[in-house]
Amino acid sequence: ISVNPEDHEKTAFTCPFGVFAHRRMPFVFGPSFEHCLRNLDTVMKRCVETNLVLNWEKCHFMVTEGIVLGHKISFKGIEVDKAKVEVIEKLPPPVNVKGIRSFLGHAGFYRRFIKDFSKIAKP
C-alpha cells in the first residue's frame, strides 16, 4: 500500500544512517501464520543489526485489521475509519468561508470513498 507523499513524515524513523520515511506501508505478512512469524523474525533481526529502535506502543502484531493513517485496513481492503466519520458528522454546520474550508478539509480526507466528491464540493 503506497503512503500518500503528504503523509511520509508520519512514518519517519531515525537510525544511525539518518532519518528515513516509508513510501509504502511496512507490513510483514505471509501465506500462513508460521511463514508470517518467520518473516517477522527476519525483520526484527534486521532492526537489531542496524540499531533501529521501534516504538512498541505503535507496533501491532498478528492482527487481521487495524487503523493505519486514518483508514481501516483489513482483508476486505481499505475502508473508512468510523471514528473519523463520527467526528465529521459532529462538526457544526459551517457559517463562514473558514468553516467551509475546515469541513471540506475533513470530508476531503475521504474523497476517494465519496463518488463525485469534487462535484459535490464545487462552489
TrEMBL record:
It comes from the Eukaryota. GO terms for molecular function: RNA-directed DNA polymerase activity. Keywords: Nucleotidyltransferase, RNA-directed DNA polymerase, Transferase. InterPro entries: DNA/RNA_pol_sf, Rev_trsase/Diguanyl_cyclase, Viral_Replic_Matur_Polypro. PANTHER family: POL PROTEIN, PTHR33064:SF39. This is Reverse transcriptase. It comes from Trifolium medium.
